[in-house]
Amino acid sequence: MLKIMIIAAALLGLTIAGSAVLRHNDGDPWQAGMKGFAVVELFTSEGCSSCPPADALIARVQQQDKDLPVYVLAYHVDYWDRLGWKDAFSNAAYTERQRQYATWLKITSIYTPQVVVNGRTEFVGSEAGMLARSIKNALQQSDELQLSLSSLQLNGGQLDWTCKAEGGTATRGNYSLVVAVVQRSATTQVKGGENGGRTLSHVQIVRDLRVSALDGKGLGAGQLAWPAGVAPGDGEVIAFLQDADNGKIVAATRRMVGQ
Q: Labelling 51: which of 18, 155, 187, 250 has CA 20 to 30 A away?
């Protein structure tokens, strides 16, 4: 009987941990002082059997934190592609971004699923409790810089964008401007590899990414490729400023095309 109770308690603990994504309401006392933002970057792959729980976790974040300054980006890396299944969303550039984080955060290897929050904290992407704490801590930090997206124009398969940074160090820091086209959701029937035979659901899929510099007035502009077959309402643009020396993200914003 005791053994059964222990097992039941363990299962309950797993259930609680698995649902430990932020569930905010107006009564949460810490929200009154919320001044920051959270950029949640997930490195994932359809070829990795450990990734679906992380994909499901950020899907819950996408829904539960949709009214908060929480910006989710899922990068599908390409180093699983040779192991039985090529991820249609994978890109070598996303693998290189993950390697850059390994340098910034001084970790010895890259892995999936991995989450990085605001460029400063990394952990296994399926750790719900760690993700909840990291988002909460990020939202309570002071936001010294402001970033805005404007003039989003979709012409065929090309999206033109303009971005402006304001604040004390917006034009003085060694910042990179990172701008991404994000597809809100997709479903894939995987026919090989570790997830062969499964139907996988994805959210916040990065479909194109550009890293550039601001000019002397805090302005940036450029083009991104809009994914074929994705309606404007099914995607968004996320932009953030990142310290090129240490990876810390200092400002972020999002905008839907047509707004």
A: 250
